[in-house]
Structure formats: C-alpha cells, structure tokens
Amino acid sequence: MPNSNKLITINALQEHSNENPSGVESQNWQYQLSHCIKDFKALCEFLQLEPKNIPFSDHASQEFPLQVPIAFAKRMRKGDYNDPLLLQVLPVAKELVKTPGFVTDPLAEAQAKKLPGLIHKYKHRVLLTLSGACAINCRYCFRRHFPYSENSIASKQWQDILGYLKQDATIEEVIFSGGDPLASSDARLANFMADLAQIPHIKRLRIHTRLPIVIPDRITDKLCQMLNSSPLECVVVVHANHANEFDINVSQAISKLRATGAMVLNQAVLLKGINDTVEAQKALHSSSFSAGALPYYLFVLDAVQGAAHFDIDDQQAQKLMRELQAVLPGYLVPKLAREIPDKPNKTLLSI
Ligand code: SF4
C-alpha cells in the first residue's frame, strides 16, 4: 500500500511546482502546517537533488521525523547539497552516533517540571509547553526527545496551571513554548491569554516560536488583534539561524507582530556547517534586524543526543564572536550564551 502521507506530500509539491494558485503556499496556515514535506524523496525531487548523494538515515528519521513546511523549503537553494536550511532539517546517519555527554534531556527540564506542561526553573518566570507540535523538525532541537505526551495541556491541566500561577505572586512572566505554541489555534491562545490577564501579578507574556519564520502566514489578523488588545506586555521571540531564512513574507509577518506593540527578538543556535562563519553570522543578524527582529541570544549547542555533529567548541565560538563584534554595531551583536542546569539564569560566555 502506498503511504498516504507521501501521496499528500507529492501532490502538494506538484501543485506548488506548477505554480498552481491553489498550491499549498496560497492556503491558510493550518493547511500549510498539515501539508509539510515529510518524505525524503519528495524533498529531493523538489530541490533537484539525487537521493543517493545524501547521507539520509531512515532510522534517524524514524526517531525524529523529517518535517519541513513548503514555504521554508522554497528558500532552500535548488541543487545545493550543503544548503544551510536543508542541513537543519535533514535526518542523517551521524545522528545515530552516541557521543559521551550528549543526553536526551540536556537542560534537565524533568527536574524543573512542577506540573504537566509547566517548567519553573528561573525566578519570576514560568515556561509552558503549550503545544507538542512543530511545523519544522530542527535536527539540533534540545527538546527532540521531550515527552510531549506527558505534558499536554488540556482543560484539567490548564486549571491546575492557573492554580499554580495564582498562588505564587512572584511570577511576573509566562512563556508560551513547545513544540511551537503558535501551532495552537487562535481560539485556544485567546482563552489562555484571557485567563492569564486575570492574574494581577502576571505582567508579561513571552511567545517563543519558529512559525513566523517557517510559515509566515501563521501571523493572522486575529492573532495580531489578540496581542494588540491584551493588557499583558507581549514579547515574541522568533528563531532563525541563517540569513536565507528571511524573505519578504517573513518581514511582513514580523511587521504585523511589531504593529501590535509586541517586542520582536530573534534567537539563534550556533551550528557547525550552517552559520559558523563571521560572514554567515553578520548576514544573519543584519537580516534579522532588517526584518524587524532584534538579535537576542546566540546559543551554543545544547548537548542533546543526536546533534553532536553540529557542535562547536567554546573557544571557537568566542573567537567568532570577537570577530563579529568588529564588523557589526553593538546593537546587532547577540549575547553568546548557554543554558546550564541548576544555574539561576542563562550563562553568558565571555568574549
Ligand atoms: S521546538 Fe523549535 S527548535 Fe525544536 S523542533 Fe520545534 S521549531 Fe525546531
């Protein structure tokens, strides 16, 4: 029997490659989310690549599936096996190598879990894994082994979370994370935001999301109205690692977010072979700023099992940052940081 996902994907790609106006990218964000590319051969066909020339691993893909939205795949260079966007999503055999020190929960989030879906690690902030779904599966993701099924937030869990937030008046900020929190519907987000706004000591809402980058159509008018009318101070932290991730649609999505009054920041991960040169970093942060997102953090890789081939040692990272400082104005230089379990905050790496 043919795989139905594969058929959907190939049909979607055919619509797209024929520039058919009813193609995937012209549909709403939910449609685009449900028609991401999940089939390796279909991705190769779309990018004009020979599958046999790629060290694709079916086993790695079974552990953490290949998934990429068409709107993002369109920004990959056709015929380029080393495209920096492609390398972020391609399941390869190197992921199966067990590297000492690389573990399934590199940030020890299990220890900081207070309730299903709620992580309380730092003072005054809590993080909610609002949705286990992502539009794109990034191979370096520190939550690639996260037990989302044990942390889903249905009505009962949400009431428990509200109880937790209400009884701790030191909590000032709630972070919607995931997965990708914007994989949730606008209606679900609106309910959550309205409940949070009723808690007097909650001042800020932060949303960590890759969706404005990978499916810019996710930034709907309804979502913008919700952000605009919320009494909470809203911060949206997007996630792009390479200048090529920005295009006109991403810029428009970020402009819409900024027009709500939300602050928009970008955080990135330093990744070997993808953005580990001064030129790539300079272009990334310049493009991010031009699109409307101020560079925020550049994280060194979290030691998650399956991602060791992206790792860069600290000395190299610090050298890169020193060189970057010399070619960018200070406001475009992100903070080089790592998250260390048990520390009360992110740890900045001196440069
Ligand atoms: S949580 Fe973020 S980094 Fe991880 S796979 Fe999803 S979009 Fe990528």
Care to describe what's here?
- The protein is of the alpha/beta class.
- The protein folds into 2 domains: 4-96, no CATH class; 109-348, Alpha-Beta Barrel (TIM Barrel).
- 34% of the residues lie in helices and 14% in strands.
- The chain is built from 13 helices and 10 strands.
- The chain has helices spanning 4-17, 29-34, 40-47, 58-63, 70-73, 109-112, 155-167, 186-197, 211-214, 221-229, 248-259, 278-291, 314-325, and strands at residues 113-115, 118-119, 125-131, 173-178, 204-209, 233-239, 263-269, 294-299, 335-338, 347-348.
- Strands 1-2-3-4-5-6-7-8-9-10 form a 10-stranded mixed beta sheet.
- The longest helix is centred in the N-terminal third of the chain and has 14 residues, at 4-17.
- It is globular.
- It starts with a helix and ends with a strand.
- The model is unreliable at 1-10 and 14-22 (pLDDT under 50).
- Iron/sulfur cluster binds next to loops.
Q: List unreliable stretches of 5+ residues.
A: 1-10, 14-22
User: What proportion of the residues form beta strands (DSSP E)?
Assistant: 5-15%
Largest sheet: 10 strands, mixed
Q: What is the average of the pLDDT values?
A: 94
Order of helices and strands: HHHHHHEEEHEHEHHEHEHEHEE
State the fourth-level CATH superfamily of the largest domain. Aldolase class I
Distance N to C terminus = 56 Å
The radius of gyration over CA amounts to 20 Å
Percent in helix:
25-40%
Which term fits the overall shape? globular
Q: From the 3D coordinates, which CATH architecture of the largest domain would you assign?
A: Alpha-Beta Barrel
Total of DSSP H or I helical runs spanning 4+ residues: 13
Order of strands across the main sheet: 1-2-3-4-5-6-7-8-9-10
Structural class: alpha/beta
Bound small-molecule species: iron/sulfur cluster
